[in-house]
Structures are given as structure tokens and as C-alpha cells.
Request: fold
Amino acid sequence: NRGSDAAGGRIGIDMPRTDTDFWNSYQQYLEKDLDHGGPAALPLSNSQNDIAKVVSNVQALTDQGAKAIVMAPQDTGAIAAELRRLAEKKIPVVSVDTRPDEGKVYMVVRADNRAYGEKSCEYLGRRLGGRGRVAELQGDLSSINGRDRSEAFASCMRKKFPRITVHELATDWKGEVASAKLQSLLAQHPDLDGIYLQAGGAFLQPTLALLEQKKLLKPAGSAGHITVISNDGIPDELDAIRAGKIDATLSQPADLYAKYALYYARAGLAGKTFRPGPTDHGSTIVRIKNGLEDQLPAPLVTKANVDDEKLWANQLEKKK
Amino acid sequence: MTETASPPAAGAVDKAPRRGRPRLDPARWRDLSLVPVILVLGVIGFIVSPAFLTRDNLIGVVQQSTELGLLVLAEALILISGRMDLSLESTIGLAPVLALWLVMPAHGARFAGLELFPAWTAVPLCLAVGAAVGAANGFLILKLRVNGFIATLGMLTMLRGLQVGISEGQSIGNVPASFAYLGKADWLGVPAAVWICLALFALGGTALGYLRHGRALYAIGGNPEAARAAGIRVDRITWIVLAVGGLLAAFAGILYTGHYGAVSASQGNGWIFQVFAAAVIGGISLKGGRGTLFGALTGVLTLQLVINVMTLGGVPPLWTQFLNGMIIIVALVISRFTSGEKQD
Amino acid sequence: MTETASPPAAGAVDKAPRRGRPRLDPARWRDLSLVPVILVLGVIGFIVSPAFLTRDNLIGVVQQSTELGLLVLAEALILISGRMDLSLESTIGLAPVLALWLVMPAHGARFAGLELFPAWTAVPLCLAVGAAVGAANGFLILKLRVNGFIATLGMLTMLRGLQVGISEGQSIGNVPASFAYLGKADWLGVPAAVWICLALFALGGTALGYLRHGRALYAIGGNPEAARAAGIRVDRITWIVLAVGGLLAAFAGILYTGHYGAVSASQGNGWIFQVFAAAVIGGISLKGGRGTLFGALTGVLTLQLVINVMTLGGVPPLWTQFLNGMIIIVALVISRFTSGEKQD
Amino acid sequence: MAGQTDGRPAAVRAEGIVKRYGPTVALEGAGLTVRAGEAHALVGRNGAGKSTLVSVLTGMERPDAGRVTFGGEPAPGWGDTAGWQRRVACVYQKSMTVPELTVAENLYLGRFQGERVIRWRALRERAGELLAGYGVDADPAARIKDLGVEQRQFVEIARALSFGARLIILDEPTARLDAAGIGRLFARLRSLRARGVAFLFISHHLQEVYELCDTVTVFRDARHVLTAPVAGLPEDALVAAMTGEEAGAARRSRTAARPPGEPVLRTEGLALEGHFAPLDLTVRAGEVVGLAGATGSGNTAIGEVLVGLRAPDRGRISVRGRPVRTGSVPHALEAGIGYVPEDRHREGLVPGRSVAENATLTVADQLGPMGTVLPARTREFARRMIASLDIKATGPGQPVSGLSGGNQQKVVIARALAREPAVLVAVRPTNGVDVKSKDALLGVVRDVADGGSGAVLVSDELDDLRVCDRVLTVFHGRVTAAFGAGWRDHELVAAMEGMGEHDAPGGEHPPAGEGRPAGRDTEGTEGTEGTAS
Ligand SMILES: Nc1ncnc2c1ncn2[C@@H]1O[C@H](COP(=O)(O)OP(=O)(O)OP(=O)(O)O)[C@@H](O)[C@H]1O
Ligand SMILES: Nc1ncnc2c1ncn2[C@@H]1O[C@H](COP(=O)(O)OP(=O)(O)OP(=O)(O)O)[C@@H](O)[C@H]1O
Ligand SMILES: [Mg+2]
Ligand SMILES: [Mg+2]
Reply:
């Protein structure tokens, strides 16, 4: 009987998908935070990675009386009309992980995907000494997050490390496609120096399995080691860093996503407003053309800080 | 079973009742076989949430069905004439992108077009692209005589790839007003898309029921040789149906764009299974020559109601997909038993 | 020249030349219709990169084909006996997850199992789950007589949902060694999966060609009524084939898990289209009763070679999908003309 | 050949038609002329190219060479199907109906005249009237697939005849009709002919040719061999022209009855609700028993129950004294019952597979050790069958879909004989088979019996029944009479139609299976059979 109180209305939350580690962790954090009291949420809906379902779910949620919406539209264009509709109804919207192109949003909660690409590029560039050959396992080309990472990575490489050759491999977020293409590339260029995995959740295990099979999985520091930087910060990646199988990852903060999505949704219900500038949780709110964006930190995790308590994946381990 | 199952002796006996109540024709039952399913869903919806029976919610459900509904309409026509077109799910995305690419300003916006034509031509261009895709499918299937399932599957991949290539994977916002109008306008308090979709279904249903070219689809799908022997231009009509199918998919793309405010890069991605599911649980045969548009429409509404009721009912996100699949199977089984016919 | 062109009396006379060239049987050409396509791809591969013809690369291509290949093998058997199973693409993921759920330790790891059975049972359990899924499909199709395409489509959604529900969307690493062994072992310098897959294809091909129950599949798929009248137990055999299909898919799941090091939550997602594409361009008819496993195998290799050659050739990522679709269509057209038969 | 003119203009003239299907030459420079108002028969052995000529004359197939003219004008262009339809109407050998559509719609398929919008009620009324004119009692709103074979055939006939075309082609229209149906068809054809309509009539029943036609053309091996007036052409000469051999020994008549041996097949109280009443039947070794009955009399259902395709409601079957599980084909097959189904397309053939595979479908367990099927043995087996049944095929590897109708039928028979059955159950085994092959096939049935097996021949064709030692007539699901050898045609026909001196008690025949006791109404040579309750 969540939300029987409903003093300031309830929160409607739509899950973009449930078939990945990352989003499942996000959901678990959401549910944990919801249990800690405060304005309640309607039961979560799931839009299965389909923007049309996002819209229909959000409508169903508002029909049931949601006064604030948390969503994660994986398509940033086709949510515009729905955002306009919600703005008309004066329902604040918190967009998690993606920044809608148009339509008013109360707050965007995300880590900067361009920053992911840049940080990865810089890390690889430094480790390889500015020369060599790297493979980039891209996601789905029509996903905004993937595209941001690719573009930032590419332009950084072009500008800062022109002597590094980048092989872009589109994979549709599919592990087996990534493995097949990486295997082909390794046949062509056995001298590969580095790999950038845009999504550790999808690519980590297939990549490790392939490198192991090809006897290319050498401990960091030894000759012939292929430098691997991943993205997401799921527990498996941290384990791999500890084991020296990969070098680094960018921790996409599932816990902070959940925490601040709810935080801003409740603030929206309460009618609070925010202004650009630094926040009390180590991030910065910036103004974007259709609202505000809280750019959460996405720490680079290496062997040095892999056991940091603050990393969400480490908390998850403990929670269980 | 062979004809001896009903020898004239027995046939003569049960002929009287048959003539007496011609409305009990099983073919008619089949069209209504999903009505009980829809009623059950309605009752469940009413139980799980009072919001279900509100005008807003029901109109929402219908509006969300419009784009899928048009694809189902297109696929139903194609299936009835004994063919298949998987590429519809890509046409709904490609046609708007291509049309906008041709008309959008070459500079300024994030998506740079070619500015070859004035903005008002976007709608006709989009429809033309859709028809052209359908015609290309027709060429592969009817002239080169390759397998239609796989040819249109290849087209599905190719057209989606073309869309990604042209749009560079981005969504396209800021579409010309004329292009967005139909998808977002309200007429008499109800979204224009709903009126248009219903009108198209009614039109299609009438054509299939009462016009000779419409009836010809059933003959072609049921037995193409017999249709040819009866003087029906099988290839020509099939070709036209495929082109009309593409055109309807492009039109669905226009409604989608207006409805959601932008051409999404993944517009229609993965829809084709839903299209088939809606058509088949609605009574359209995959083997051709059987089914009605009314049945197809009930199929679409059923699928959309399922999603709506699950959301209202607060099904845990982890289990929505499971439940969704289960309900499709249950609906299929119910429609098989209420129609009383074996499917194949 | 046939006998009709010569009087019956001459029948004995023209038997001689006929025996002289029995190899010109068109049915044999059909199985080889993709060989030219593969050759062309090989030449292109050789031109775009010297790495193409290396042992590593070719073995890599074959290894990447194994999981898809097993699904195609399963689907080919099912298609030949005149049915379809879309749910294979979910079985490949669900079966390992269910099996692991039953055996994995209840505490400690991130993915908590039930620990009901000892770890070594994971492989047999997985196979049993696959067979059970196939049998469930058989129940829907053969007992309830619902449309197989849509019933297995519903199963596809439901099983994938079940997998997501059980695994909570996580990938499952740390699988028992026995479970991972086959997918990653090397035998005689070549991945074990390759040997196994080839052996299964050879076994299946032999059964279809030289065993009476294998040959019965062609009769069942070609004309089930005639098969029944000839004393073939149509429903029973179809049911077995569906169960074997599920079992093969589960086995593909085992290989996948070993190969990629974990059971991925999206294992097999979206494969079914590729499975059909490989089977059909390889000469298997969607209408049943036609095609060989050798053809199906060439279909798989063709699809995988396309991806390999495109990767080696450095096709820009934005255009890979487009090119991929185009090549499927071209391969389809080529195989239609080299086999010289109209497809339908 | 096509050159004869006798003043009347040619309704259709085909010259030098060549048509190949891959390596098969179906027509090689063949031609024929049908003059206005003429009833022209086209005969020839199976695979002679008759149906191919029909598809050329109706615009369904484009010939590789040759010319077709209608009334002196060149034929419509390829693909102008409507144009062809105006000139010629046709009843094809293959069923050309759309099973899912109603009778009314099938009748008017492709020619909803006049108004833009179809008026269904009026259409159904017109269809009802049209069908009534053929004595067909079918609901115009029923779907074709729910109709029996014969009613379906009449729908096709009615459609073709109602076009108002001046030329009508009928490709074996009588193959799926019983005697009464044939009578009605012929009456209708005669009245049309009186109005000057020309026919091209194809049949393997030569007596029909003599009954109906003025002129006959014979094709042999894709070529035209003869066109002559029917009157004055002896049947022997006609057969000789068809076969290309001197008319051999007179048609094989039944060898003298030998004393029948042990019973091989016995049924006790076998019944299927709605189809036939309890039946006790005994077939002895060396005996061919005919089950004669018009379409729908239930005789086909008896055949199907015997072979296990349908489960009876009651009753037992035993072969050579051993009980057979009913309703299971594998068990029936195992027990030694061989089966030639009525509809070769539906239950007989797997169209895409080879002659060898089709012929060995029932003996797959005998072609190699341990469940294997050795191709060499399969081919060898098929070659023997091809030779012994005189099947015209390019070889054991040819797909059966490429054979002519009659040869397909022979493949089905080969399949039934493959197991050397103790009892052969054959339903209309000579359906669509040419005269010479028909004799051969019936001879095969006879030989099977002479070899110590029994045979049950379910048919309404007198030619078929002539090989039988005994004939039981079935009417409305009951055995109404039994005849020994030497019956006279009219008696048997009368009994099949439920009339005559062998008639069962009472003029009204209740539908079978009502359970009404129907005393022993058989009279004839043996008293062991008949319906009992
Ligand atoms: N579609 C086809 N493909 C291949 N061969 C064919 C086809 N149709 C007919 N034939 C061949 O053409 C020849 C003539 O066949 P057709 O059907 O004209 O014979 P028919 O005289 O009508 O015989 P029947 O009396 O058995 O009907 C046969 O040898 C047959 O095998
Ligand atoms: N429902 C139907 N049933 C049977 N035949 C049909 C049906 N619909 C169309 N046809 C046939 O399909 C063919 C194509 O139709 P269409 O109307 O285009 O013919 P047309 O000769 O090109 O022009 P027109 O319409 O002026 O006759 C015609 O032969 C028509 O008779
Ligand atoms: Mg013929
Ligand atoms: Mg014939």
C-alpha cells in the first residue's frame, strides 16, 4: 500500500529496460531508496527499450495520478511530444541517463557520456604512449549515449593522439557480435595494443574469453599486454581489474542515478527549484536549453582505487 | 479428413439448419474470436485500477495503437493476398527520414538535409518512398521470384541500415509543421490519428468485402492459380498490394513522427513480430486468403490493452516481458477455441 | 529429353543415357547454390585483406558460426518437417540460466541459485530444459492446434521474460567448469565447438539422408496427410523433432556460455531472423519438405563470412547494417539463379 | 491434321505448339482444330500432353512455339487473362477453386459484373439458381472446402458453362463424378451443344467419347497422331492410336474364379457414426471384393477405416486371424493392409520428393539394416516398380510433381504394393488413368489376389468392378446387395443408386449410424457379409 499518504502526489517511474545489470542495479537502488520513506511511487513500469512504450507507460502513470515522472528515454528525440504534454500538465520530469533533445525537463540526471569517451581516450593514449592501434567496441549506432561516447572518443583521438589508429566496430550492444568482429580484427592486426569497451556489461566477458582463447590475456605490465578500458563499472569489471585482466573502467553511478532521480522528483513534487552551479554532492548543475542537468561524477576506476567503498558496485556486493 | 466425412446423405440433413441460420457461419465467428479476450482484459483493467475506464486512458490506448494499427492493416492486406512483408518495420522509420533528408535545410539544424524540395512536399515524398519500397519488394518477389520472407527480411536490415546511415543514428526533431500535423492534431477532442486510422480500416474493410479488386485479394491468397484461371491479374494486384502496404507503413511513420515529436532512429525497431502477432491472433492466416480487417483491429487493441493493463496493474518490471508472452499465448489459445478452427 | 518424347516401347532404350549422367539432377544443384556466393566472398576477402586467408581467421569464422549453426541445424530439421520454431532464440539463453539457477550455490555469488542439484548436472539439466521447451511448443502446436508461428513467438517473448526474471537481468559468470568446458576447449588445435558442430551436422545429414525416421521428415513436411496414410506417425515424429530442436538450442547455449565466458542476459536476442535467413538462402523451404543440412551449413557460413569480410574491409560502422542487408538480398538472388528454381 | 475445313469456321485452332518443362517435352509441334459447334474429344495416354495443350489454349501457359487462333483471330496477348476468358471457358483437371471462399463467390470469381459494389445477397440467389440447374444441392454461402469432391466439381462445371463462352474445354470433368453426376453433366452439355457451343472434351473413358463427341483427336508422346470422326472409328483402332501398338489381346477379362482360400481380412460390426452401419465383411485369399457405391455412399469411409486412417466407433478388424488395432495406420500397415487413397494429391503423394522416395514410403524399414535406408536399394526398388507398373518418368530421382496425373496414380499404387500386402484396399485406383494403364493396374490388383492376398476395391466405376470376384453395393452406409461374378451393368448401377430388385427394404434410406436395425438385406452368392446391428 505504497503511497496511501500521497500528500503531495505520487511519483511515476518508468524503467527503460530490465535485461541489463546496470539497469537492474538502478532498479534495486530505487526500490531501496523508496523504502526509506518520503513521497511514495506508483508501481514501476517497464518500457522494454521501446520509446513508444515509454510514452504509453507514462500516460498510464499520469492517468493513475502520478504528479512527477522519472524516466530514462533511450531515444532522445521522440520523447519531445510527451514532454510537452507533461509540461502542460505541470508535471515535473526527471530524465535519467539521457538528455532529451526538446521539451521541458525539470532535471536531467546523468553522467556525461562525452566525458566517458574523452576519459577513455586519454587513459588509453597515455598508457600506449600516444602510438599504436586500438579497437573500439561501439554500441548501437542509434543510441545517443553510444554515439556521444564514440564521437568524443574519435575527436579526442584525432586531436590528441593522431598516431593511434582506431578501429571502430559497431556491435548493436551484442556480445557475440563484438567477439566476432574483434576476432576478425585480431586476425588482421595481431599487434593490437588497446581495446575500448563502450559497455562492460555487454562486452566484458566475451572480450576476456576471446583474449584468453587467443592467449593474449597477459597481466598488466608484462610484454604483449593489451590495455583494456571498459565502461559501466559493474562488479564483474571491478573483479577483472583486481585480477589484472583489464586496466580500467568508468563507473557509471547506478546508485547516484537512483538516488538523485528520486531526490529531484521529490523536490519537484514539493515545488522546489534549482539553479546552475555546484551541488552538495560533488557534482555540477548546468543549464541546458530545455532545463537543467545535474552532471554526476563518473570516476575512473583503476587498480589503485578499485576497492573504494564509494563505488556503487562495491556497495552492491556488500548489500547482498 | 476427406469429403466422405460428410456424405450427401448426411449433408442433406444438415443443410436445412445451415440455411436457416446463415449467421452462424463459422467464418463470422472467427472475426469475433478476440472479443471475449478484450472483454476479459477490460474487466481485469477495471479491477486493477479505476484509472482504466477513464476517457483519457482509453483514448490513450487507442491513440497508441494507431501506428502499430496501420502496420497491421498493411500486413493484413499483404497476408490476405498470400504474401509477407517484414520490411514494414523499417519503412516506418526510413520513409520519414528520407523525405525529411530531401526537404530539410542544408544548414543550421543538427540534421542537415539536402533542401532539394520545398518543405510542404515532405508528406507526399514520404508516402512515395513507402510505395517505392513496397514496389521494390514486389520486384524481388514477383519478378526475381525469390523467397518473400527472406527478401523482405533482407530489405528490413538494409532499409534500417540506410536510415542509420542517412540520419547518422540521430533522431530528427524540428520537422516541418505539415509533417507533424496529422500525428498531433486533435479533431473533435479525439486525436486525428485515431479518426484517420479508423477511417482507413473501414475503407480497407469495405474494399475487401464489397469491391471486386478487394475480393480478388482473397482469391489470390487462397489459390493463386485459380485466381489466374478466373482472369484476375494476380501479379499486378499483388504488386499493388505490396506498394500500398509500403505506403501505409510510411503513413504510419508520419503519424509516429507527429505523435512523438521527432523521427526516432529506432522508430519501428522490432515491431514486426507484434504486427504478425496482432494479425494472427486477430484471425488472419499466414497462409493467405483468410481473415478480416476487423479481426486484425481487435488483435492490435488486444496487444495494446495488455500493455496498458499490465502498467496499471503494476506488474514488477522484471516480469512484464514474461507476462506479455504468456498473455499472447493465452489469447491465441482462446481465439483458437472461440473460433473453433484449427490454425496452421 | 524424357520418355514422353519417345514411345513407351523405347523406354528401355533411353535408360542408358539417363544412367550416364545422373549427377545433373537439379535437386543436387540446389544444395550447392551458395557455393559460388562463398567463393565470391572468399575472393573479395582475399582482396581486401591478406589476413582473410590465415588459418586463425578462417577458424575464427567457423567458431563464431557454431552457436548460430546449431540453431540453424535445429530450425532446419523443424522447417523440413513443415513447422517453425521462433522460440529457439530464447531457449539458447533460458536453458543455461535455468540449469545454472538449479545448481549454483545459494549464497556467495552475485547470482544466487537454488543449489538443488550437484554442479555436474548443469549440462544434462540444460539439455533437459531445452527439450522440455520444445515439447511445450509441440503441445501448443500439435495438441491445441494453434498457429505455430505465433505460439512460438509468444514462447519467445515468454521465455526471454522468464530468463530476465530469474537472472534479474544479470550476466552469469563463474559457471561450473563442466558447463564451460565444451565452449572453450581446443581439440587438435581447433575449438571443440567446431568439431562438435560439424559432427552434429554430419549426423543430422546422415539421418535425413539414410535413416528412415530422418527421411520421414521430408514426407511429413512435404505432405503430412500422405505421410500419415503411408503409416508414418506424423504427430509423434513432429513432436520429437520439436523437442530435439529445443535440445539443440540448449546445447548451443552451453557452447555460447563457454565461448563467451558467461551467460549473457541477451544471449540469442534477435538471432531468429538470422537463423531463418541462413536456412532459407541455404535452400531450406519455409513450406517444408525441402532442403538439406549441407545447404543450411553453407547458409550459416555465408552470413558469418559477410560479417568477417566487412570487418576486415573496414566498412564504416554507419553503413555495415545497410551493406549486410544488401548482401543477404544479393546472396538470395544468386542462390535462386544458381539453383534455377523459383522460391516461394 | 489441323488443315481439315468443312465450311464451319474454327472455334479454336492450335498449330505447331511446342512446350517444354525443363528436359521434359510436353508438346512437340502438336495442334488441333475445334470447329464451331463441334464436340471434339481429345484422348491419349497419361502424359501425352493433353492438359498442357489445355493450359496453352486457355492462356495459362505460354507455349515455347506455335500459334493459337480463335475464330481466325490471333489469341489475346500473354497475361491478358480477361481476354482469354472471353473466348474460352475451361474446367481444369486440377481443382481451380478457392477453398476458403463461398460457393457463390467461386462461381462468380473474376466476373462480378456491372455494379461497382458487390451485392452479396443477389449474388447468392443467382448462384443458388445456377446450381439448382445442375441438381447440386449446395448452400451458396457454404465454403468450398466444406463441400464434397463431386459438389466441388459441379461448382467448377457450372462456372465454366455459365460464362456464355462459345468454346468450352473440359479436362477430365467426369473423373470426380459418379454415374448420376455424369448423366446430369452430359444432359447439360448436349443442350448447350444444341445452341451451337463447341467443346473440347478430355476423358480416359472411351465410352464417354463415343457417347458425346463427333470428332476425336489422339495425342501420343507429345505429338498429334490422329483426328477422325468418332462414328465409324472402332474402339480398337482408337486404343491402337493412343498406345502406338497394334491392339493386343482383347481386354483382359477376369480369370476363372478359383476356390477362394482362407479369410485374410475380416471385420465384425465395424461402424462409423454418420458414415456406415455395422459391417461384417470377409475377404478371402485370392479374392477381389468390390465395394460399389456412389459418392457419399460411405464406401470410401469403409476403406479409410480399414486402413486405419479413421477410427471406427465400434467393431473389430482382423487380418489372417490376428486382430488389428483400429484407427492406426502403422498397425494396419504392419498387419499387411495396403492402401491406395482416393485423392492422390491429398493423401497419396509428397509432391516435392522423388518417385523413388514416394514409392518406398511404406517400406522404409526394409531398405537397409537397423533403420537405415540405402539409396541404392531405394533406387533399385523404385526401378522395379517403374518397370512393372510402366510408370513414365525420367528415372527414380524425378520429383513426382513433374509426372502426369496418371503416372502419379501409378506411383501411389506402387507405394501400396511395396509391402506386398495381405490385403490391398484401393479406393478408385484407376482415377484418371488411361485405358491401357487402367487395364494394367487392374491386372496388378488381380495379380495381387492371385498371389494369395485379398483385395478390396472401393469404386463406382464398372470397369474397375469387373475384376472383382464379388461386388457389394453400398447405399447410404449400408450394404444393400451382393453380386457374384457375371453381374449385369444395369443391375449394379441400380443397386448403387439404391433402386432395383436388390434394393434394401423401403424406399427411404435413413442416414447410417442411427442405430436402426437393418435386417439382413443381402442376397447373393455369400451370406457372410452385410450390415448387422
Ligand atoms: N509443371 C510441370 N513441370 C514439369 N513437367 C510437367 C509439368 N506439367 C506437365 N509436365 C509434363 O508434361 C507431360 C505432359 O503432361 P500433361 O499433364 O499434359 O499430360 P496429360 O496428357 O494431361 O496426362 P493425364 O492424362 O495423366 O492427365 C508429362 O510428361 C508431364 O510430366
Ligand atoms: N474480385 C475479383 N474477382 C475476380 N476478378 C477480379 C476481381 N477483381 C478484379 N478482377 C479482375 O482483375 C483484372 C484486373 O482488373 P482491372 O479492373 O484492372 O481490369 P482492366 O481490364 O485492366 O480494367 P477495367 O477495370 O476497366 O476492366 C480484371 O480482369 C478483373 O476482372
Ligand atoms: Mg491431364
Ligand atoms: Mg488424367
